[in-house]
Specification:
binds adenosine-5'-diphosphate; 7-stranded mixed beta sheet; alpha/beta; binds magnesium ion; 7 strands
Amino acid sequence: MQLITKSSDETKKFAAEFAKNLKGRDLVCLYGDLGSGKTTFVQGLAEGLGVKKRVLSPTFVFVRIYPLESRKLRLVHIDLYRVEKPEDTDSLGLDEFWSDPENIVVIEWAEKAEGLLPRNRTNIRFKYVSEDERLVVIEKVI
Ligand code: ADP
Ligand code: MG
């Protein structure tokens, strides 16, 4: 499935809708260049899940965790931008995050963990179309 969003608000709105179908142990992998809209998508996702805190890019800490108030779940936002070597990704223990039934995990720059990613996830690719437009391609991996 794919769509073109015409503003960052539209990307957030789409993400908030998408969030309604998420449950514990779900993994969402985000791909796309810098500025293509990955973090914007996560902000919408968080909004849709009822997270009140502002979602910042976890570029320096690699992970931020947002407990959901309404359910016994957490939104785990991982950003692998700073990870340079695949060996570095190995040592992060990422599988601990996505094997936890109380976690919904979303990863920016998921290609940096490619060999570690389990099946049964959703890949979302973002592409810059014009200043305010992004192509969003969603693919379920089974
Ligand atoms: P990434 O995390 O992929 O590096 P960000 O979400 O941080 O990207 O940045 C996307 C930038 O593009 C933001 O400044 C946002 O306002 C802008 N933008 C413009 N149009 C869109 C759109 N349709 N969807 C998402 N972001 C958009
Ligand atoms: Mg980002």
